[in-house]
Amino acid sequence: MVMEGLNRRQLISWCLFDFANSSYSAVIAAVIFPVFYVSSIAGNTAGLGDLWWGRAISLSMAFVALTSPFMGGIADYSGKRKRLLLFYTIICVISVSLFSVLKEGMVLEGFFLVLAANIGMEGGLVFYNSFLPCIARREYHGRVSSWGFGVGYAGSILSLLLALPLVSSGRYAAAWIMVSLFFAVFSLPAFLFLPEDRQSGITDFSAAMKGWRYALAVLREIFGHREVRKFMLSYLLYEDGVNTVIVFSSIFAATTLGFDTQELIALYLTVQTTALAGAFVMAKPMDVWGPKKIVVLSLMLWVAVSALAYVIADKMHFFLLASVAGLGLGTIQASSRAFFTQFIPRGRESEYFGTYALVGKSSAVIGPLLFGYISATFRSQRPAILAVSLFFIAGLVMVIRVRGGGPNMDKEDEKNGLG
């Protein structure tokens, strides 16, 4: 069905970027490299590897959070949105390729490479997300957002299938090179076909300063509106839980439940398959029911999953639990992004998504640090995974109280003074 307001070429290239960067999300951030770094590079005696991995993720996310207002300002005022996306992508691609030189004991070298790679990946998402309102009309944001995540899960599946024979034969360095090439090649259409940068005549420094001043004004504006403030605070809480689960799930499976590399890949492929199904199945309901209902349902699911993970000791039971968790993974991320777009005044996408990134990346600071320290303190990851459920519970309680997020936000915008 042809939907008015969608440019097919831009839509496909936007989704393909998610397909491309999902190779990093799956192989580097979630499944293979975390276990490799924690076990083979740092060693996980008494939770030491957990501690260093948590530090790397938290510090990189904090850096992205703090710089997002500046970079969002440069994107909007100097008109260099696509150029900045390319810059961050190159940083990530090069850093991942350099993972191939890491050897046992190179904890600090790995730490700094993870910092650079994660900054490149997460920082670029600020500009990637800000293209969504530019390529689709508001009434299609939910399904287009879900399509992006759905295609991204397909990218995760393919990249893991490509990595499997490499890691099975012990060629980890080749796996990191494969990810860097996968990201580079499949991101090219985005740089060719997404809306072009505009010429403004404003220097980057002036744009950054304007962006910072404007970011403070946007923060005051956002947090000055009660409903938007409640959504952002709830997002801060539950996204912290989501990010912590993503970066520690494979480490938990390997360390606590004894999963080997092949089992980890099979586990993640199962999760990505159910997440892919969930993202596409809930795409239209997200527009019909509204993103708020999808967020609430997803958080209820995540509370149950994190609580059950505390008591599970059998691999097969964990496989089943992870399959259920996958259904809520794509929907919570896509519905949150669609929910937030309803609060964005037209023409101010990058600033608002810079603030969205500031909150979202800030939410990835406390959780990983907390997991690492609880694991190291108790010498067990079970109390750490149980603690994650508190983020979901708190976020659920708050998001239920947010007005908005319905299927016809334009009318609610007028009533609530948004838009």
Q: Which geometry do the CA atoms define?
A: globular
Beta-strand percentage range: under 5%
Number of strands: 0
The radius of gyration computed from the alpha-carbon positions, rounded to a whole number of angstroms, is: 20 Å
Q: Name the CATH architecture.
A: Up-down Bundle
Give the integer mean of the pLDDT values. Answer: 83
Order of secondary-structure elements = HHHHHHHHHHHHHHHH
Task: Describe this structure as you would to a colleague.
The chain has 419 residues and is an all-alpha fold. The protein has a single domain (8-193, 202-416), classed as MFS general substrate transporter like domains (Growth Hormone, Chain: A, Up-down Bundle). 82% of the residues lie in helices and 0% in strands. It contains 16 helices and no strands. It has helices spanning 8-42, 48-77, 81-98, 107-130, 132-135, 141-168, 172-193, 204-224, 226-255, 261-281, 283-289, 291-311, 315-341, 349-378, 382-400, 409-416. 55% of the residues are buried. Residues 409-419 have low confidence and may be disordered.
Summary of the model, kept short:
This protein is mainly alpha-helical.
What topology emerges from the helices and strands here?
Layout: H1 8-42, H2 48-77, H3 81-98, H4 107-130, H5 132-135, H6 141-168, H7 172-193, H8 204-224, H9 226-255, H10 261-281, H11 283-289, H12 291-311, H13 315-341, H14 349-378, H15 382-400, H16 409-416
Helix pairs in contact: 1-2, 1-4, 1-6, 1-7, 1-9, 1-10, 2-4, 2-8, 2-14, 3-4, 3-7, 4-14, 6-7, 6-10, 6-11, 6-13, 8-14, 9-13, 9-14, 9-15, 10-13, 11-12, 12-13, 12-15, 14-15
